[in-house]
Amino acid sequence: MTMTITRTITTTTIITTITTATTKTSIINLHQYHHNHHQQEHHHKPTPPPICHHEKQAIPQPIPHTTNYTLPHTTV
Length: 76
What we know:
The protein is built from 3 helices and no strands. By secondary structure, the protein is mostly helical. The longest helix is centred in the first third of the chain and has 42 residues, at 2-43. It is rod-shaped, with a radius of gyration of 19 Å.
């Protein structure tokens, strides 16, 4: 019984950690984009938006994590 409770807590902690990490990354990306946008405004140069930055953001991060913590869970 105690083992089951411990496992549940561990899984929840992992999920929370991943969610927090993903949120922090998104905030950093948004801040970086905002900063780049401001720099462009100050220089008054019609530079194209950073395409690579958007492509990186478009990758859904939680998917690989889901596979990681589901596999050990099913084996247990």
